[in-house]
Predict the 3D structure of the following.
Amino acid sequence: MAGLGEILKASRLPMLEARILAAHALGVERVWISAHEKDVPEANGLRAIEALYSRRRAGEPIAYLTGEREFYGLSLAITPAVLIPRPETELLVDRAIPLLRQGGRVLDLGTGSGAIALALALNCPMAQISACDASDAALAVAHANAARHGAHLRLLKSDWFAGLQGERFDLVVSNPPYIALDDPHLFEGDLRFEPHEALVAGKRGLECIDAIAVVARDHLNAGGWLLLEHGYDQGEACVGLLERLGYTKVSDHRDLAENSRVVQAQFDPAVARR
Ligand SMILES: C[S@@+](CC[C@H](N)C(=O)[O-])C[C@H]1O[C@@H](n2cnc3c(N)ncnc32)[C@H](O)[C@@H]1O
């Protein structure tokens, strides 16, 4: 009978992934696996490990297999109904936090797992945070994550701002879908398994960013900020769009991989163009 060490090696997966999945299948910490490589798992445990290895070899993302992903130091529950939060999205949170030192009303559009809204809620306790999504299944995950972290979030189902008539915010943030319909990346890696409606935004990938930027002017307080994540090659288009709409202090920011990633702009009703 093979010991855990041999099972890990035979997995044909990177060793880190093999350890993470074995630990998840056996319900133990990853360090336990390293300390017990000579142990022979019971039949049920072995079956659970092999089932996860085979799904992983077929390409399923680790986060969907374990049901967990860390974002901004928070462990989040993840299901295939939500986008797997990405490290580059932490830049949006980094840029938002200093804008919320005195609190304020915040809206996270397309909250998915609740990653951005929760990172803001836990780091800016004075802020009042609303978060919406068009997907009931995504909102259920966001609710579970808010409960897991004891965070007070107002979660609502809404097609962007449609369910927020008459409401204004000091900060609107969003990591909206921004991949073009025919982008070949959609057929590679994790993206193949993530919800289409969390990824794709029309022919150029800019449909959601466009729609949000136009309507956000009716939902921002004077001096309020709009922060949007975008694709690595969409920075210039986003800056141009926000300037055309009359936002002020428009700036684009790079993530840790040096890719253009987050556009930020302020709303001044005296300047905004209609
Ligand atoms: C790229 S995912 C971002 C999820 C999460 N904010 C994050 O950063 O991990 C985009 C999210 O927008 C939601 N979405 C797509 N179209 C929407 C719409 N018209 N109104 C509201 N949410 C929408 C999707 O369901 C998805 O959860």
The chain has a mean pLDDT of 96. The longest helix spans residues 43-57. The pocket of S-adenosylmethionine is lined by residues 82-83, 85, 89, 110-113, 115-116, 132-135, 138, 159-160, 175-177, 197-198 (CB under 6 Å). Residues 46 and 230 are 42 Å apart (CA to CA).
